[in-house]
Amino acid sequence: TLAAKRQSVQQVLELVAGSIIHFDKACDGPLDVEVNGHCVAHGEAVKVGDKFGVRVQSVVLPSERFKPIEPA
Q1: CA 55 from chain center: how many Å?
Q2: Whether 44 contacts 32, CB under 8 Å
Q3: Is 28 exposed, middle or buried (0-12, 13-18, 19+ CB in 10 A)?
Q4: Higher-confidence residue: 30 or 42?
Q5: Which of 27, 65, 69, 70 has a Cα at 20 to 30 A from 44?
Q6: In this structure, which CATH number among 3.90.320.10, 3.20.20.80, 3.20.20.70, 2.30.330.10 belongs to the domain 9-60?
Q7: Pick the residue with more confidence: 60 or 29?
Q8: Residue 9: its H or E element
């Protein structure tokens, strides 16, 4: 784990494009965003002023959201 932060479900629901989540340490290189130990997104470190953030590049959807297509 490069950095971790606990947030309530309400705080996560309030996130919008451009939201900034502050961490206590700098980071660089490819990153995985995890929730409860499960990877939910991949991103890259970005610098915003003198702070660092994560730019989400792709979202990992849980496999249970996908249903196999069955022939008709």
Answers
A1: 8
A2: no
A3: exposed
A4: 42
A5: 65
A6: 2.30.330.10
A7: 60
A8: helix 9-13
Q: What tens digit of pLDDT does each residue of 16-35 get? A: 988 888 876 555 667 888 88
**Three-class SS of residue 39?**
strand
Residue (of 5, 16, 46) closest to 29 by Cα position: 46
Angle at 59 between CA 44 and CA 8, to 5 degrees: 90
| DSSP state at residue 3 | -
Per-residue pLDDT at 39 exceeds 70: yes
Q: Decide if pLDDT at 64 tops 70.
A: no
